[in-house]
Amino acid sequence: MTTIRSFNPPIRTLMGPGPSDVHPRILEAMARPTIGHLDPVFVGMMDEMKSLLHYAFRTRNELTLPVSAPGSAGMETCFVNLVEPGDKVIVCQNGVFGGRMKENVERSGATAIMVKDEWGKPVDPNKVAEALAAHPDAKIVAFVQAETSTGALSDAETITRLAHDQGCLVIVDAVTSLGGSPLEVDAWGIDAIYSGSQKCLSCAPGLSPVSFGPRAVEKIKARKTPCQSWFLDLSLVMNYWGGGTKRAYHHTAPINGLYGLHEALVMLQEEGVEHSWKRHTDMHEALKAGFEALGLSFVVPEGSRLPQLNSVTIPQGVDDAAVRGLLLKRYGLEIGAGLGDLAGKIWRVGLMGHGASAKNVVFCLTALEAVLSEMKAPIAAGVAVPAAQAVLAAKGY
User: Fold this and answer.
1) CA dist., res. 256 & res. 327, Å (int)
2) Which parts of the sequence belong to the Aminotransferase class V domain (predicted)?
3) Treating both helix axes as pointing N-terminal to C-terminal, what angle do 273-294 and 255-271 enclose, rounded to 10 degrees?
């Protein structure tokens, strides 16, 4: 039998759609001694975690916690707790993750009314308004604020207002937006929202922050049927995550993972969430200047682009997989491929959390230009990095 030795991963620069590079402070936090999940010291950290999530989400919602699973479980937490059999839910789809919302609705025994927009475009509020008028019995509107499959940013404030005007709750996917784009849960009146630890928080994958407002809590309490998931049933989870020192056992929390998320949120608080939003935008502007100087074009229209997820078209005649393979092999640089209808047509380049830096902007442009030049791609050589550096200098970096 072959002896299997300890796994030592290579050092990579992660500039895909996630996970992002985990900050050394967070890695160090995750290596701290494991204690019990009902230890009074750990319970104290749980209370701090809720306060830190209140800050990140810009909310005072009591029902705010990290689900012990990745962002997909945060999505499911929202749907299985709020959607009941027979409900009608308006689901906005402009990429992969709106489609996953539809799956959650239907698996909850409800009907999904689809509002579809072209991949790469934001959700059209006018279409949402039309769907609400056509289906006055709808209970919920669900949409993705930051569509990771395309890099499109939708107007969460406007869509939420339209839903509330018709008496609907809203469920918002903020997996890629939390910490990287403006997000105001209380000011916009968002009823239920979920995110992930591995994007703009620069934490390891595996945790999903969620928050539920008063209207959502009322619907959960008024359910006529039990939540279809025992593990994600918030009426049970809150007995563990509720306030105070007395906690009821629900599951063994991922203790060291929660250390990491706590540290990530402390770092967000230290930087200031508004400054984090600005830094992501500044780095996007520099990368954009470099990409456009190379001759690459963006998929998403100006004004609807996620700064932390940049989707650009692949030059004609260039082999998508070959470029990404060389970037990984030679430079240890990971960028993302397109999904669904955009597979083989675009690259998705992430500037998330710790990775949203001037160093990464210049490194990515340098490596990509070198590989594309070797492949004789139709690009402009020698101009991308100076273009990016001019933007960085103008912004004080």
Assistant:
1) 32
2) 74-338
3) 80
Give the integer Cα–Cα distance in Å for 185 and 157. 9
- Residues 179/38, Cβ–Cβ less than 8 Å: no
Residues 226 and 290 in one domain: no
Residue 6 falls inside a structural domain: no
Tokens (6 digits) for 89:
């839910």
Torsions phi, psi for 193 (to 5 deg): -150, 150
Give the residue-averaged pLDDT of 50-78: 97
DSSP state of 309: E
The tokens describing 75, both together, are 């999505």
DSSP 161-180: HHHHHTT-EEEEE-TTTTTT
Q: How many folded domains does the chain comprise? A: 2
Q: In Å, how far from its chain's centre is CA 226?
A: 29
Task: Report d(CA 166, CA 88) in Å as an integer.
Answer: 13
How confident is the model at residue 389, as a pLDDT?
98
Residue 13: inside a domain: no
Neighbours of 210 (CB within 10 A): 27
Is-contact 175 200, C-beta < 8 A? no
- Residue in the structure block whose two tokens are 């784009």: 181
Q: What are the pLDDT digits (tens) for 347-387?
A: 999 999 999 999 999 999 999 999 999 999 999 999 999 99
Whether 235 and 184 share a structural domain = yes
Contacts of residue 89, Cβ cutoff 8 Å, sequence gap at least 6: 83, 105, 110, 111, 112, 113, 138, 139, 140, 141, 142
Last residue of one domain, picked from the residues 270, 292, 315 = 270
Q: What is the mean pLDDT of the chain?
A: 96
- What is the widest separation between alpha-carbon atoms in the chain? 66
Kindly report the pTM of this predicted structure: 0.96
25 is in an annotated binding site: no
- CB 124: neighbour CB atoms within 10 A? 18
pLDDT of residue 191: 98
Q: Say whether both 194 and 336 belong to one domain.
A: no
Question: Which residue stretches of the chain are H helix?
Answer: 24-30, 40-57, 71-82, 96-107, 125-134, 156-165, 185-188, 214-221, 234-241, 255-271, 273-294, 320-331, 358-374, 384-394
Q: What is the pLDDT of residue 245?
A: 53
Q: Does residue 5 lie in a domain region?
A: no
